[in-house]
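lol forgot to send this yesterday, sorry. struct tokens for the thing we talked abt
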């Protein structure tokens, strides 16, 4: 679970890094906070023997609403959800499943692993 959570948090942190508006310290703090939140959130919803079970619960979603776990991590570095909407894709779906992290940018985008 740690590998998949770390991969998901790193991906979102890299998206923020590309904006050039956050310091490395802010990015590190955001990533660590997101990893912690995801770990707590997924603790009782992680089933390596049945990776698809709980996939919807583990889905990270930005679609005209900010995913609350991303919003929580952003608040630790002083970013408001409104600011996040300008820094991250307006449509992002990420599935964090045992053995695989996949994402889609845009509603009609391809799913990437």
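and heres what i got for the seq, position by position
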């Amino acid at each position: 679970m740690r590998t998949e959570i770390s991969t998901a948090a790193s991906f979102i942190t890299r998206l923020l890094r590309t904006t050039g508006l956050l310091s490395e310290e802010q990015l590190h703090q955001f990533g660590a906070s997101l990893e912690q939140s995801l770990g707590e959130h997924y603790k009782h919803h992680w089933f390596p023997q049945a990776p698809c079970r709980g996939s919807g619960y583990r889905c990270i979603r930005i679609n005209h609403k900010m995913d609350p776990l991303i919003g929580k991590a952003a608040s630790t570095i002083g970013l408001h959800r409104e600011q996040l909407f300008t820094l991250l894709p307006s449509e992002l779906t990420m599935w964090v499943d045992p053995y695989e992290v996949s994402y889609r940018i845009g509603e009609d985008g391809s799913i990437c692993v």
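The chain has a mean pLDDT of 96. anyway ping me if u want another try
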